[in-house]
Design a protein that fits this description.
alpha/beta; Rossmann fold; 2 domains; seven-stranded mixed β-sheet; three-stranded antiparallel β-sheet; 9 helices; 10 strands; globular
Length: 267
C-alpha cells in the first residue's frame, strides 16, 4: 500500500480509538521520510480536523503538523518530529499508569470497559506486567463492534478477556451480579474507559460510555476515565460528533491523566 493510500485508510477508520489513530498517523509519517512529504502536510492537518473533530489529541497533532509545515522541508526534521511525538506519547501512557494504579482496588481486578482504547490497553498491560491478576469484560460496542476487536487484542497479549453484549455488560457491573459473571471472571470490579476528548463541559467518547459510567455510579463501583493530557482541551465539546460518539457531562466523573486526577467539572 502506498503512503497516500495508507493515509486514506487511516482517514476512513471509524473503529480505532484516538490514541491508536494517532499512532497510525505517526507511523505513516515516518514512512514518508525520503519522499516529497511537504505536499502531504499541506492537506493532512485540515483533513484530520474535518474527519475526527471529536478527537482532541488529533487536533493537537494537526496543530503541530501545521507548525512543521511552515519550516523548510527536511527529512531529518520529519523524523525528529515523529520520534519525539511517539516518545512523548509513550511516556505519557506510562506515567498515566503510575498515576491510576494506586487509585485502583487492591488485589485481583475485574475490569469493565467498552470500545477500543489504546490508553486503557496500555494501563491493563502495565498492570499485568507488574504482576496484578486482571480479567476484563468488554462491551462489543455496537454498531461498530470495536469492543469485540479490543477483546481479541487483549487476548493476544495474554490477558483474560471476554466480549459481551453491550446491555449484558451493564447488567454484570453491580457487585450483586457476581454469580452471573462468566466463570473465572472474579476480582474487585472497576470501570476503566478512555476518552477521545476532555472538555470543560463534557467528555467525548464512543456511544455507550455514558451508560457504563452511570451504571458504575449507581452500583458504587469505582470508575475512571483515562485520558492523556493531549486530549484535554479548553474549548467546549464539539457539536459535530458523528453517529458513533456522544458527549458525557463532566459532573461526577473522575478523569485521570499523566498530570494527575482532574475530577469532574462543577454542575
Amino acid at each position: 500500500m502506498t503512503e497516500s493510500a495508507q493515509i486514506e485508510d487511516i482517514l476512513a477508520d471509524r473503529v480505532s480509538g484516538a490514541s491508536e489513530i494517532e499512532s497510525r498517523v505517526l507511523s505513516n509519517l515516518e514512512g514518508l521520510a525520503g519522499t516529497d512529504w511537504s505536499s502531504v502536510l499541506d492537506t493532512l492537518p485540515d483533513r484530520l480536523l474535518e474527519t475526527f473533530p471529536q478527537m482532541a489529541n488529533l487536533r493537537s497533532l494537526a496543530e503541530d503538523l501545521r507548525q512543521l509545515a511552515k519550516e523548510p522541508a527536511s527529512t531529518d526534521a520529519l523524523r525528529e518530529f515523529v520520534t519525539k511525538r511517539a516518545a512523548d506519547k509513550a511516556r505519557r501512557e506510562l506515567r498515566l499508569s503510575h498515576v491510576v494504579t494506586p487509585l485502583l482496588p487492591a488485589g485481583d481486578l475485574l475490569v469493565f470497559t467498552l470500545s477500543k482504547s489504546g490508553t486503557v490497553l496500555a494501563v491493563i498491560t502495565d498492570l499485568v506486567a507488574a504482576g496484578r491478576r486482571v480479567a476484563v469484560l468488554v462491551a462489543e460496542s455496537r454498531p461498530g463492534g470495536e469492543g469485540a476487536r479490543f477483546a481479541r487484542e487483549l487476548g493476544d497479549k495474554g490477558v483474560k478477556c471476554r466480549a459481551c453484549d453491550d446491555f449484558l455488560l451493564l447488567s454484570l457491573v453491580p457487585k450483586e451480579a457476581a454469580s452471573r459473571r462468566p466463570p473465572g471472571y472474579i476480582g474487585s470490579p472497576v470501570v476503566l474507559v478512555g476518552a477521545d476528548g476532555v472538555h470543560p463541559d463534557a467528555l467525548v467518547n464512543k456511544i455507550g460510555t455514558r451508560a457504563l459510567l452511570e451504571t458504575a455510579r449507581l452500583a458504587e463501583v469505582p470508575a475512571f476515565v483515562l485520558a492523556s493530557s493531549t486530549k484535554i482541551r479548553n474549548e467546549a465539546s464539539p457539536r459535530v460528533l458523528g453517529s458513533l460518539f456522544e458527549a458525557i457531562p463532566r459532573y461526577g466523573t473522575l478523569v485521570v491523566s499523566e498530570l494527575g486526577v482532574l475530577g469532574g467539572a462543577a454542575a
